[in-house]
Amino acid sequence: MSQTKQGPNDDRQMPRPPHLPPVAIWAIVLGMALIAAMVVFRVDTWGDRGSGLSPRFEFDVSELVAVDPNLVSHSETAQVPVGMQSVQAIAATSDGRFLVAGDRAVQIFQADGTMAQAFSVPDEPRCLAVAGDDHDFPGRIYVGLASRVEVFDASGQPIATWSEGLDQNTLLTSLAVFEDNVLAADAGNRVVVRWDATGRLLGTIGEPDAQRGIDGFVIPSEHFDIVVPTDGVLRVVNPGAQRIEAFTLDGSPLGHWGEASARIEGFFGCCNPSHLTVLADGRFVTSEKGLPRVKLYSPQGEFESVIAATALLTNRGGGPEIRDEHSSRTFGVAADSTGRVLVLDPNTRQVRIFEPLESGAVGDAG
Amino acid sequence: MADSAPKKDRRGFLNDALRTTSVIALAGAGGFLAGRRSEGEPMVWQLDPDQCIGCGHCATYCVLDVSAVKCVNCFDMCGFCDICTGYFEMNYLALDTAAENQLCPTGAIVRQFIEEKSGQRFYEYTIDVPLCIGCGKCVIGCALMNGSLYLQVEHDRCLDCNECAIAVACPTQAFHRIPASQAEILKRRAEAVLGARGRRMMREAGDDAQSYREGAELLERALTQRRWRQQQRSAPSVSSGSEGTARDA
Amino acid sequence: MPLMKYARKIGIPFATAGLLAPVARASDLIPVPDFTEYQVPLSMPPAPDHPLWEWLNVSLLLAALIAASYIALVSRSRRNMFLLTIGSLIWFGFLYQGCICPIGSIQNVVLAVFDTSYAIPLTVVLVFLLPLVFTLFFGRVFCAAVCPLGAIQEIVAVRTTRVPSWLDHALGLFPYIYLGLAVIYAATGTAFVICRYDPFVPMFRLSGDVNMLIFGGALLVMGVFIGRPYCRYLCPYGAVLAVLSKVSKWHARIPPDECIHCRLCEDSCPYGAIERPSVPPARETRPAARRRLAVMLTLAPLLVIGAAGLGWLMTVPLARLDHNVRLAERIHAEDTGQVEGMTDASEAFRNTGQPKEELLAMVADIRSRVRLFAVLLGAWTGLVVAVKLISLSVYRRRDEYQPDRSRCVSCGRCYWYCPSEQVRLGLIEDISELVDLETEEAKAAS
Lengths: 366, 249, 446
What we know:
The structure holds 3 protein chains of 3 kinds. By secondary structure, chain A is mainly β. Chain A has one domain: CATH 2.120.10.30. Chain A has 4 helices and 24 strands. The longest helix of chain B has 33 residues, at 4-36. By secondary structure, chain C is an all-alpha fold. Chain C has 22 helices and 2 strands. A two-stranded antiparallel sheet of chain C has the order 1-2. Chain C is globular and about 95 Å long. The model of chain C is unreliable at 1-24 (pLDDT under 50). Chains in contact: A-B, A-C, B-C. Chains B and C meet through helix 1, strand 3, strand 4, helix 5 and helix 6 of B and helix 1, helix 2, helix 3, helix 5 and helix 6 of C.
């Protein structure tokens, strides 16, 4: 087929204006295609390379979390899993058993960690206390719900509901029993309410009173713990002031201890400690939130040692985990008569048991 | 020409048929999509502060030079504390507003004295929005205590990218598409406290219709959040589905 | 009684509150200090005011499509088309800053189909549908002067060269595969890849990832020599439009009336969309052509099945775009010591204390879900290749110089080259002023 005429089948090139040589054009095009392909694969859309912010934008807690191993006086000896979705409160009895409240139930454990018994409560429990032998009704279990106290006998049978002295602003966060007195910390009204063993209101403690030198409690978050050691003096955590205040049961202030500090001997942040308990020998165990740590203080309030450091409680190598569901829950503490410290871990939903190191003396450890 | 005319017609007929089918199909698809979602409300990006870990990606992955993600303070969760872990460096020299004590690298948090009560001084902490770059440093600090500071997408700045670059880079996949009218995602705790405040306002409003309405609006705002979270749980979207099932499990 | 009125007005939230009680967990409530004077403020992020903005965009999209159709088919003015292109670039590109565009809207539509919890806005449905409907009737007028991505490439296409036909056909398959990828990732809710790798949106916003800016820049430099590289070899929406455009009712023609085969328009198209009149195959080659077609037709199902199998094998890499899969792989790599350190995502996961097994189970679940889509993607790829091979093996009769409807973007560059157009515009009296009509075709035509 030889066609000489101009027409559709003619493959001769039309005369064109001068161009860049095709080789140069294709070199540029290929180069650009190569660059395009390269940069597309360099794009880090997934954020794997981090935020790229300078270090001053990073929140570094490693210095605060670090604890001198010589200060650690206890070691973890056992872990008791609690079969609950959320655990709220822990209490120990004089005979070595301990109770855990959570979900809508209370579970009672033997000293060795086997569950002995469980009973349900009508609403989400917030706090828990067990009557001692010097109480009118030994072994009674007091469970604090948001705004009332449910009373159970030692076998978990409901007996009564107390709400005298509580109102709709009430938010119960802690219960304590001393002899015939039952005391409840009401974070909503910022007072401690006191009843007798029958639930009759005996008064409130801690309302601001300039004459008696009571400032009142500052409670920036829903943590407000109380404890009454065998000396019969009420110890109240004033979290906003980062200190522990002492009151007689009729409400006279007896002084306070504790200081705000990010260092190990102080209480960290705006509102700590979140939990407080007392050992049989009168020493205090505090539990802090934020950077969780459990520490031991002398009866006079001097820092003695660390029971559980942040790293141990959170298994955290890196930065702080701030998601509410993992961080806002606090580590409840209780101490039994044998000197064991029971730490309620809300994340693993375990009771973690700490016992003094064999060597005994602080300073030899590690 | 004789045989080309019918051929053309056949092709033309085929084209017509295909085109008519396509139009019907498109109309059907449009009707289906529009009918299924008749509210047809625009969707906007927002981050769930409960999933946020304050990693700082919001500050750098936003396509804007200065991120559309900013910190907000939910005052009802705030302790108004003197020692604010969201405001002060951990190793502060003094509890004052000197720059070396401030946690915020851009100085975007404003500390304002309110009053002294119960032996404590109370302060209000607000965000100077133009200065905030959304790095989340204060969010981590605050979360150690009350967690009232958290990040939110500011819609008047957000470009509403079809795929949010921060959402892709977010290590915990905290970004969600939400209806534009919802605008925010509250922390669960913020939802609780705001709902409680709304209810209290309604209870205490008495004859004050204005305050009653404000209380009702606040309660509705909290309930919107509750409904959204329930919907997230019950009908997990394909993208966040895996996470939803994980949490339910 | 304003109180009663308000009580009725808020009756619904009240009722809901009753249903959902208890609204608040007691432990969530934090007592705010009782300040003597200070009122605790409420903070609220500013509400988006987008609805009007979006509807304005949809109206302008419609207006631009109508204008582009009119210019392409009636007024046939390259100048006006170019002005419209500039206008679209300014509005849809630099002012509207890209999102949401019809190209990306494919994914919103797919997500809306597969994910019942995603409420697709009506404006997005319209943004998706309008260009499709216009294409069915008027050809790819959206690409011509409405799409900002097309517009930015259109204005740089000044020194275009012809892409060899084999390369053009091969690269032309990619948009369909990209479309398939975009659809499966949108359907699984994994990602909007089209938006993630949009080369020009960072330019419209004058900010963004530097790599993406370079990507866009490289495409633009390329676009000087190869007309519209993104539209032709990447754009998945263009792929859809190309198919629809094939059956468009009215499509841009090069000559306003009859073609005189003068060849003047032959090289006028920067996008290689002009097809020459076809030469009927010689009688002796017909059996070979028929055999080739038969081979292709039998090959097609095999191709589809084979590619589907390949898709099955690609499940694991395809699933890698999912956040959880990436996370699991990262955690595995960290645990086995293949990589050092942690990413933010893996650190966050480890901090939650969630067992690795849960994540792995989830990943297995995701992979099994992706597998189906991977097979479909494979089959789709096979189908696209098969259809291309078959269409290349079929002889189509063309009597005139005409734009290939699927590739032509109706930019109108070729009109000016046609002598008949010059006559139509009254610039010349007679075609013979421009063209030597002493050819058989011309004689036949006149």
